[in-house]
# Entry
Amino acid sequence: MSEQKYQQFSNAFYAQSESEVLTELEATSSGLNSDQVNERVSKYGPNKLDDGKKKSLLQKFLEQFKDLMILVLLAAAIISAVVSHDVVDSVIILAVVIINAILGVFQESRAEAAIEALKKMSTPHANVLRNGDTITVKSTELVPGDIVLLEAGDVVPADLRLLESNSLKIEESALTGESVSVEKEIKIIDDKQAGIGDRVNMAFSNSNVTYGRGNGVVVNTGMSTEVGKIAGMLAKADETTTPLKQNLNHLGKFLTIAIVIIAVVMYVVGTFFNGMDPIKMMLTSISLAVAAIPEGLPAIVTIILALGTQVMAKRNAVIRKLPAVETLGSTEIIASDKTGTLTLNQMTVEKIYTFNQQQSAETKLSTDNMALKVMNFANDTKISQDGTMIGDPTETALITFGEKHNFDLDNKLQQQPRVAELPFDSDRKLMSTIHKDGERSLVAVKGAPDILLERITKIQTTDWIRDITAEDKSVILQNNQDMAKQALRVLEMAYKYIDEVPGELNSDEIENNLIFAGLVGMID
Amino acid sequence: MITGDHRDTAEAIAARLGIIEAGNDAAVLTGAELDQMSTEEFDEKVENYSVYARVSPEHKVRIVKAWQKLGKVVAMTGDGVNDAPALKQADIGIGMGITGTEVSKGASDIVLADDNFATIVVAVQEGRKVFSNIQKAIQYLLAANLGEVLTLFIATLLAWDTMLPIHLLWINLVTDTFPAIALGMEPAESNLMNHKPRGRNSNFFSGGILSSVVYQGIFEAAMVLMVYATAIMWPVHSGYNAIHADALTMSFATLGLIQLFHAFNVKSVHQSIFKVGLFKNKAFNWAILASLVMMMVVILVPGLNDAFRVAHLDIHQWVIVLGASFAVIPFVELVKLVQRKIKKD
# Structure
């Protein structure tokens, strides 16, 4: 790999201020000029991932002949042809050797898709500021110091330190595994050990801008970007030999040595002690080599493995590398992701808490229960024609919970239609919807328990509504903690009635003086 | 279990899944704690941890390497691009079919179409079956190879005309091949998931395979040589060449047929074949039939038998050949019986 070909920056740019970064990169917020760009292209190289060394088909084919067993067979074929002038045996042996080599090449070729896929992710074009003008360039032409403009829908073309963020959100799941978009800010991050996911003032190559606008200065390009480092590691990661390969190699070596020894002993005994014809003895020795080598074995092992992959594919395990079938059988340690693998990537309601009562999700709830109503009303899940739910997993879980408790959402929404809403944002950690309910309007609020509780002034008891006490609040927090300890994700529901819906919705006004309805605990 | 969740959540879920006991805080390690450890320290302690919380994909490579240093065969799941190096490092990289990125799938050895952990267990079970069947195929083939080597070696010492490469290749590459592949389709033996993983240091010869290859190979050679000796001592034809042609043909036929009978023995390493079921594996039955035809064709069809330099055998000779070949079944059954008795005591 040519990682060291172009020296680039390894600073922790996220821990530096915007102006420090610009100074370091000898750049300005109005962009580089043409001379600087030309100079930097030759200094830092193009902004693309290395191709890596690829073996040609012929190389792969020739590599198959490094095997000792194959070499002995080849030697046998040649000696046999030279000594006996009868080429039938030699031709058969050669055919065996060649078929084996072809099988080997075939297996190898199926295994090289990873870096290809990385390259496909790369972006074709980027908007940059150069000489003070916005121009579109091929993303391979970006250099450190360039100012790149980002907007929703763009793929980030290189690693950037952000200079401006207008509600910029970037989805970095490819790099971090976290599927929720990250809200980008430009403030300095003091923690020099911050992981990629926590460097919110950076935008990383190959991540997707999902919302907002912003711009940033290119700090690293090509193989020096985070995604480039992964490409480098992929190319370098030691191809561990599978137990199967080790086993077959071992067996092959053992047999080869044994064969050579036995053949020599036999030749010596036959010619010198039994006085047999040396040429005939030579042929007999070759017969022996042929006899001792299980010529069919590699092909048979390959076929048995291939049959195994078919069975596994039927049972949802798709095998990409043949020897994996057998390696699987010897697996001792399975290191597994939790989300989506050990657990379904799907939330389910486990517990619900209403006034002084924590109960399991199975216990029947009245369809008039306000907690049930709020969690279904303050909810943006869309239900398609065939009944599948589209939306945030926590919200779909609440709708499913409502269905289980016979909460007829369509019907209730017809009676109390949604007339306004305050969408969720990460500062408030709340969302509210307002519903027409006869003369007055219902405000349904759901959100993070600690934050919502501060905005609550009343509590709904079993039969009436009264002012909330400090004791009530501590019981609620206690229940919240209790659920959190059981690995549940907790949301709180609250509501109130207002006489008139204001023209301009204001969180401080709408989401205050609320009535506590309940807590709900979900697990994934 | 590896997760980005907080420590408490991770611990609670792991306890629910039965990975750790509830309250076993010591088995949980966070990414930050892992960062504090040196590689040596972590290598020493890796066996203590079952749950990793707040980890990022970079930590996965460390976890895999630490286990591999202990000589373990490690499987690792992952779906992000950042998981790719860990997937490649692991002995088995397991990609996710639904949530996985193309890069992670590309670096994986196997991909779960349903993203479900239970599928890994199914795959492990299937993998063990495949290994055990490969072992059977190897036992079967190597017994023949050993039989051939010993036959040639001893025959040469006795100055007998031995089988030619063409005969050996016909058996190794044609008549042995069908049963060997069919052994790969044998159903799983019942106790497959009850024993411990065999680990990196085991090989094809573990579990009694090597000793089986040796005694079965010796027996095959003994039978073939005995048939050869019988043919020379009680010749049907006269003249040196004719007698030796008969003997060679008979030993070739014996070796070919003995392997066909022996294929039944190999169905189970330790169990009696009458318990395993003789004809349960349909592909196997067809394979035996196909090999039998291939064997007979080269001996019986005029023209072909010239190419194979074999002679025409009469009924008495065939009876000797068949008897010597079939003997492998009662013999191996007897040895298995003794082995089972010894193991019990």
